[in-house]
Amino acid sequence: MANPAKRGNVYYSTEAYNQVDNYLNSNKPSKVFVLVDENTHQLCLSKFLSRLNEASDFEIIEIPAGEENKNLETCSGVWNALSELGADRKSLLINVGGGVVTDLGGFVASTFKRGIAYINIPTSLLSMVDASVGGKTGVDLGNLKNQIGVINHPEMVIIDSNYLDTLPKNELRSGLAEILKHGLIKSESYWEKVSNLANLDLQDLDGIIKESVDIKSEVVTKDPYEKNIRKTLNFGHTLGHAIESYFLTNDSRITLLHGEAVAAGMVLATFISQKLKDFPEEKLVQISSKIFDIYGKIEVNQKEIASIIDLMKFDKKNERGNVNFVLLKNIGEPEIDCLVPNDIIYQAFEFYQKA
């Protein structure tokens, strides 16, 4: 069986739009649909269409913005729109947006008429370095993150940092969390480089984005179906996703951005790594200090911690009833499938609150 990671090549800047034009000319899709949310419809769509030679016949489908709309109900609306607009198996879906649009759009394309081609145009930093690469598609089930989906690579991914001009600072910080994660699982030198990007000068970001995409692509190519090494990309996500899910559906809490929750998850996972894998204590202090400087702290009480721990049982990395963590023996030395006792998780939250 061919390695599916060979599909989904990533292209940058001017070359990227030439590749889309070449794809349209050589494959001649029966119809082209562009999926946007209400924000990217307003801020990004015209930028994208203006870069293509032939975009006059595209059909635009809009979904509501926000993680709370990344669900099967929204998928159903897009499937119905595709059907009513005459999409067939030779149609193409182009997803222009952040992680919600690329995740959901990829899933919609992968399942409509048993699969149509799709292209991802990520417009947020988070989706550029994470959601658009690796072929993971899917939606949430209630407040449970990414429970429904398939691995199916796009025809290509187009990365153009000019879209980042449309993002508020907190969205840029959210994307930076995934870049910081790449640093922690990759190498000390890359961590040092990216942990000094808190001010996020867009001029510096192009190289960092490409480097982070290359790190993720290398891992995905080795393990497209997440049997082993690809699990390392989930560092900080076991508790991060549970925190995000808890805040998503708790009316007394504001919804967290994905990167904000993952940042907290990385501090917690690094503390657990120090307890169980002898991760150097001075590096724990340095990492947590850097993350707190960028993201601040999320206040949670004991009752909420119990609810968050309970949500971890739905994590997609779990096997045979065990909650599997990714931990670090050192920066750049991740270890997968680690079991963590609940008392250590409570200690991690205590450290997080007091650090």
Which geometry do the CA atoms define?
Answer: globular
Work out the count of structural domains.
Answer: 2
Give the distance, in angstroms, between the N- and C-terminal Cα atoms. 49 Å
**Topology, number of strands:** 10
- How big a fraction of the residues is strand? 5-15%
Radius of gyration: 20 Å
**Major beta-sheet overview:** 4 strands, parallel
CATH architecture of the largest domain: Up-down Bundle
- Spell out the CATH superfamily of the largest domain: Dehydroquinate synthase-like - alpha domain
Which fold name fills CATH's third level, the topology of the largest domain? Dehydroquinate synthase-like, alpha domain
> What is the string of helix and strand elements?
EHEHHEHEHEHEEEHHHHHHHEEH
Q: Can you list the strand order of the major beta sheet?
A: 3-2-4-5
Q: Helical element count?
A: 14
Assign the CATH class of the largest domain: Mainly Alpha
Ranges where pLDDT stays below 50 over 5 or more residues in a row are: 1-5
* Helix percentage: 40-55%
Protein name: 3-dehydroquinate synthase
Keywords: Cobalt, Lyase, Metal-binding, NAD, Nucleotide-binding, Zinc
Pfam family, one: DHQ_synthase
GO molecular function, one term: 3-dehydroquinate synthase activity
Question: What report would you give on this structure?
Answer:
By secondary structure, this protein is an alpha/beta fold. It folds into two domains: 4-167, Rossmann fold; 170-354, Dehydroquinate synthase-like - alpha domain (Dehydroquinate synthase-like, alpha domain, Up-down Bundle). Helix content is 50%, strand content 15%. The protein has 14 helices and ten strands. The protein has helices spanning 13-27, 38-43, 45-50, 72-84, 99-111, 125-131, 169-186, 188-194, 202-222, 237-249, 258-277, 281-295, 302-311, 342-354, and strands at residues 9-12, 32-37, 59-63, 92-97, 117-122, 139-141, 144-148, 156-159, 324-330, 333-339. The strands form four sheets. It has a four-stranded parallel sheet. Strands 1-8 form a two-stranded parallel ribbon. A two-stranded antiparallel ribbon has the order 6-7. A hairpin with a 2-residue loop joins β9 (324-330) and β10. The termini are far apart. The model is unreliable at 1-5 (pLDDT under 50).
